[in-house]
């Protein structure tokens, strides 16, 4: 049984930048990436969907989400 390591994505970046970060994480062998739900206007669920469409073996999830502003 190997060690599974996840990482949190950058905060407050544009969607294409976060997706590129996710792709690099998959290439580096990470198990998963948590994407931060930031009030800057970047939608975490759109970002996750786009990243999922371009990855094949990575666990993706919202790292945090603000239920009040959501």
Topology record:
Layout: E1 6-8, H1 15-28, E2 32-36, H2 44-54, E3 59-64
Parallel strand pairs: 1-2, 2-3
Helix pairs in contact: 1-2
Largest sheet: 3 strands, parallel
Quote the average pLDDT.
Answer: 90
Tally of DSSP helical segments? 2
Can you tell me the residue ranges where pLDDT is under 50 for at least 5 consecutive residues?
none
Helix/strand order, N-terminal first = EHEHE
The chain-level structural class is alpha/beta
Write out the strand line-up for the largest beta sheet, numbering strands in chain order. Answer: 1-2-3
Tertiary shape:
globular
In helices, the fraction of residues equals 25-40%
DSSP summary, beta strand count: 3
How big a fraction of the residues is strand?
15-25%
Terminal-residue CA separation: 38 Å
What is Rg? 12 Å
Characterise this structure.
There is one protein chain. With 70 residues, the protein is of the alpha/beta class. It has a domain at 22-31 and 40-61. It is built from 2 helices and 3 strands, in the order βαβαβ. A 3-stranded parallel sheet has the order 1-2-3, covered by helices on one side. The termini are far apart. The mean pLDDT is 90.
């Amino acid at each position: 049984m190997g060690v599974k390591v996840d990482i949190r994505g950058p905060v407050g970046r544009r969607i294409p930048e976060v997706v590129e970060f996710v792709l690099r994480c998959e290439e580096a062998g990470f198990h998963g990436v948590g994407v931060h739900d930031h009030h800057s206007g970047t939608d975490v669920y759109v970002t996750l969907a786009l990243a999922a469409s371009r990855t094949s073996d990575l666990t993706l999830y919202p790292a945090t989400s603000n239920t009040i502003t959501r």
